[in-house]
Recover the amino acids of this structure.
């Protein structure tokens, strides 16, 4: 399909003319590479939600390429160009569809896993590269020109590649081309230039540009009125995409350098200041509207922005001459109310209103000891929304626990605040996952582990966290997330729950923290067939705190401590618990334990007072009686042989004064027996069995 690839032309413009661009930052276009298929059932379920919540909601600020795979069925869009699709599938190690990768390595998830927070996070980061794409239709072929400008000081990774995709922006079939019912397909990749391997390039020096030209013959099967081009520069070592450009992008003349540190540990009455620089890289003067907005800011906090030293508290239009820059700073002063506040300075071109706005966001935290983190990833069915849908359940619980120093955010913001070292007063994290994907990521578990190792506390709940981490079919689990699950949550994945078996929710009466919590039921909160309360088990320092149904066979929640950290993990979402009162009780008991308001000293004293007597008759033959006294909790009688192997277990009610034990299935020999209460053993006694 390639007619020719012209010789690279490198244009170096005098740096004196580019003072505004050197060390500036360009608008960063989030680019999604979407692997899908016309005969894929889950694709038909999730793609429309991605279209409405991501593509339609951001028509000029995101780029999107669809690669149609060769499986699981028929798809003529793959049949037309299977080789180049397969190349990208292999590059990203795609094992199932639908799957989307953002910016090469920023995030990989199903379509429903992406939300506006992912887009805003990328745009606010800006990019040192500006990618400009133009195309000229010559009739039966078209010329595509890509100009890459290093407006910052990017040096490149030594293995940088320019990829150019010819896409058909809208493909509509009268009848579904596959068997999943879809008839509309956006941004379908038709051809990669020069091929799927791209063109190896050297990043231009600061202030310089490099121009590449391509010519592609138009195929008769393409709708030429829908053809467009997307170009992106990718580091082949890390897979990071620095930036992208499309042939329909409007001109963007604003440049922005945000602050190096975007979060701060604030103090009441003291100013936290963040410095930015805004520029005009165009050839003429341009008017820009500066607007400072706040989110989650307590009423007694104040903020303003400064432009070239002048303070503004209301939206202001300023004129920037061609090639000029001005300082644009945010100043935040916390009041007496604890909070984690977000402040965003947005720069919108008045002269060129079609240009997307540029912005940077900063975060100030003060007086917060408990952080409620709502997972920003999307719902499992791709219907839109995220874990903040049921944030109120956690907020009600924290209020019930009399916690007045909590703040609400998402994991993206929490990571930014942690990276800036601005969590000095933070002690407890309640992570609301529910039914969103992905939840645990390598970066997140690294930060959580550091917090826990320093005496932190973590409450986490969600119905597919273990499945996501350990089932290979999820595509999300990594060695790091699996290690965190095992070593800090002290739990193991047993099974994905079922609707019929895991409705009743019963708490472990023998647990010193959650024992006494009234039993409840789980409801199908998400509707349809999406009801999978996970079956897990305790490992390491873990102790089971709730079960599904009668008995103790199916375990649903675990708490753990090693004397430094404390964790509580529910294998179901808090929102699934059928009673508001019990939701509150769960949060309060965890919060009190985290805050040492529920002491285990009482439990330890009870263990010392507990008495287990000598069995009689001794030696034993068929049956024996073992006296017990001072039981404050239900327990388990455990019999081990002298290799330490458990050979017999029997439940003991806390009201019991003796235990009747059948020993007829034990071989002759010496055995030890003891009571286990909340995973802790009493002193063992010896029993002899004869035959």
């Amino acid at each position: 399909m390639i007619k020719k690839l012209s010789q690279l032309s490198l244009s170096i413009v005098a740096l004196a003319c580019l003072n505004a661009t050197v060390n500036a930052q360009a608008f960063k276009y989030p680019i999604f590479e979407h692997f899908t298929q016309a005969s894929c059932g889950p694709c038909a379920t999730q793609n429309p939600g991605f279209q409405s919540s991501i593509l339609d909601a951001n028509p000029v600020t995101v780029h999107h390429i669809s690669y149609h795979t060769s499986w699981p069925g028929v798809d003529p869009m793959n049949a037309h160009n299977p080789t180049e699709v397969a190349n990208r599938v292999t590059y990203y190690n795609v094992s199932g569809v639908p799957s989307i990768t953002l910016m090469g390595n920023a995030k990989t998830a199903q379509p429903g896993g992406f939300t506006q927070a992912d887009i805003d996070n990328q745009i606010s980061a800006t990019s040192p590269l500006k990618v400009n794409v133009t195309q000229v239709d010559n009739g039966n072929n078209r010329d595509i020109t890509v100009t890459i400008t290093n407006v910052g000081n990017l040096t490149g990774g030594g293995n940088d590649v320019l990829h150019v995709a010819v896409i058909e922006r809208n493909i509509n079939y009268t009848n579904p081309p596959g068997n999943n019912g879809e008839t509309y397909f956006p941004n379908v990749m038709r051809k990669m230039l020069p091929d799927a391997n791209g063109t190896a390039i050297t990043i231009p020096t600061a202030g310089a540009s490099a121009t590449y030209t391509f010519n592609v013959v138009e195929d008769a099967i393409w709708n030429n009125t829908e053809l467009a081009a997307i170009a992106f520069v990718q580091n082949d070592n890390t897979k990071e995409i620095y930036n992208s450009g499309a042939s329909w992008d409007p001109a963007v003349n604003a440049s922005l350098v945000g602050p190096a540190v975007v979060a701060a540990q604030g103090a009441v009455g003291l100013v936290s200041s963040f410095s930015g620089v805004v520029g005009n890289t165009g050839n003429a003067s341009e008017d820009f509207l500066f607007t400072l907005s706040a989110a989650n800011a307590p009423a007694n906090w104040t903020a303003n922005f400064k432009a070239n030293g002048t303070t503004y508290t209301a939206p202001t239009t300023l004129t920037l001459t061609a090639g000029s820059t001005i300082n644009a700073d945010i100043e935040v002063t916390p009041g007496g109310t604890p909070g984690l506040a977000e402040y965003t300075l947005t720069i919108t071109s008045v002269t060129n209103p079609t240009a997307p706005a540029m912005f940077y966001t900063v975060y100030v935290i003060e007086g917060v000891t408990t952080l409620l983190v709502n997972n920003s990833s999307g719902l499992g069915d791709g219907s839109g929304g995220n874990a903040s849908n049921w944030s109120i359940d956690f907020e009600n619980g924290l209020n019930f626990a009399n916690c007045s120093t909590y703040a609400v955010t998402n994991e993206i913001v929490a990571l930014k605040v942690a990276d800036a070292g601005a969590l000095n007063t933070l002690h407890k994290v309640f992570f609301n996952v529910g039914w969103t994907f992905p939840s645990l990521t390598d970066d997140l578990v690294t930060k959580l582990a550091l917090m826990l190792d320093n005496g932190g506390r973590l409450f986490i709940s969600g119905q597919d966290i273990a499945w996501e981490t350990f089932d290979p079919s999820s595509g999300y689990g990594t060695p790091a997330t699996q290690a965190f699950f095992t070593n800090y949550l002290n739990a193991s994945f047993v099974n994905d729950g079922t609707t019929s078996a895991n409705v009743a929710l019963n708490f472990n009466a023998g647990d010193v923290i959650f024992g006494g919590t009234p039993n409840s039921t789980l409801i199908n909160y998400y509707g349809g067939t999406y009801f999978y309360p996970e079956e897990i088990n305790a490992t390491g320092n873990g102790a089971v705190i709730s079960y599904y149904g009668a008995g103790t066979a199916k375990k649903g929640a675990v708490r753990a401590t090693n004397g430094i950290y404390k964790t509580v993990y529910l294998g179901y979402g808090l929102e699934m618990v059928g009673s508001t009162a019990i939701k509150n009780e769960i949060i309060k008991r965890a919060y009190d334990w985290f805050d040492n308001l529920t002491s285990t000293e009482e439990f330890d004293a009870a263990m010392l007072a507990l008495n287990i007597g000598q069995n009689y008759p001794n030696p034993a033959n068929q049956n024996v009686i073992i006296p017990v006294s001072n039981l404050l909790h239900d327990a388990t009688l455990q019999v081990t042989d002298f290799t330490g192997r458990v050979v017999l277990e029997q439940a003991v009610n806390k009201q019991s004064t003796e235990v009747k034990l059948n020993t007829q299935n034990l071989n002759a020999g010496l055995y030890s027996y003891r009571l286990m209460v909340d995973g802790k053993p009493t002193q063992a006694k010896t029993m002899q069995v004869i035959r």
User: Anything to note?
Assistant: The two ends are 87 Å apart (CA to CA).
